[in-house]
Amino acid sequence: MENGKVTTSSRDGICTVSFHPQSNSLPGQLLRELGDTITSVSSDPATKVIILRSEGEKAFCAGASFDELISIQDIETGLKFFSGFAHVINAMRKSSKLIIGRIHQKAVGGGVGLASSVDFCFATTSASVKLSELAVGIGPFVVGPAVERKVGLSAMSQMAIDATEWHSATWAQEKGLYNHVFEKPEDMDAAIEKLANRLASSNPEAMSELKKIFWRGTDDWDTLLVERAGISGRLVLSDFTREAINKFKAK
Predict the structure, then answer these.
(1) pLDDT < 70 stretches in the chain
(2) How many whole angstroms separate alpha carbon 207 and alpha carbon 212?
(3) Alpha-carbon torsion, ordered 96, 30, 131, 235, to 10 deg
């Protein structure tokens, strides 16, 4: 569990992919494992629908691992790390299966990117969102296309610029990031189960064709997101960013 872990469980055509973040953040190894797992379960004919969730009582995902960010010493390592987020987003984008997101608590940075990359998203009222990257001298370059696709350029730029401010789950629902928001996690889980069961009995071919329509216009993301990862990988080496990350870690 030092770097977190990814687990799966399946029943009746529903595969739940759970990631257990390291201190709520996502180190590179966990990102690679998560992307590979989504790709693997997507290729299983027995899987009809996927549920993506985070374990634990804390944040859904607090974004990148600061410990790993501060250890990056060259552009190649930076590119490799930020490409981990690109890998997960692209795995969800290219999956032929509809993916349901379960956002039980706050989502920051890359966590907002994950929530934006599922096809249908449930959340609780505790699941506020923040794109904090600019506050540490980087920017939401890799997750930006996924967030913009879901909430539009105006809302994405609001989050990216106002990088220290939280936006409520209600705000996220109004902007289209969340489809349903619940006061109680158990009510959210009941709604997720109801939808997942219904989708599991739907026509797999029809759902696959719908998925292609939903993601139309993103065929260049294999290249685009890696290019964006290169920007972040370069900026993380700056003195400004290193000082900003160390200040955040000291809080």
Answers:
(1) 1-3, 21-24, 249-251
(2) 9
(3) -110
Give the pLDDT confidence of 212-230 residue by residue, as tens digits: 999 999 999 999 999 999 9
**Both structure tokens of 183:** 């006061």
**pTM of the shown model:** 0.94
- Asked if residue 127 lies in contact with residue 102, where contact means CB atoms within 8 angstroms, the answer is no
The closest alpha carbon to 120, from 176, 82, 42, 77, belongs to 176
Q: How is residue 104 annotated by DSSP? A: -
CA–CA distance, 25 with 20 (Å, rounded to integer): 9
Q: Which helix (H) or strand (E) holds 207?
A: helix 204-214
For 209, the token pair is 């064709």
The pairing of beta strand 180-182 with beta strand 14-20: unpaired
**Among 79, 75, 102, 92, CA closest to 28:** 79
Rounded to whole angstroms, how far apart are CA atoms 187 and 193? Answer: 10
Q: Structurally, how many domains does the chain consist of?
A: 1
CATH number of the domain that residue 59 is part of: 3.90.226.10
8 A C-beta contact, residue 39 and residue 14: no
- Given this model, what pLDDT does residue 22 score? 63
> Is 240 a member of any domain?
no
In a domain, 195, yes or no: no
What 8-state DSSP symbol labels residue 242?
H
Structural domain for 15, as ranges = 5-185
212 within some domain:
no
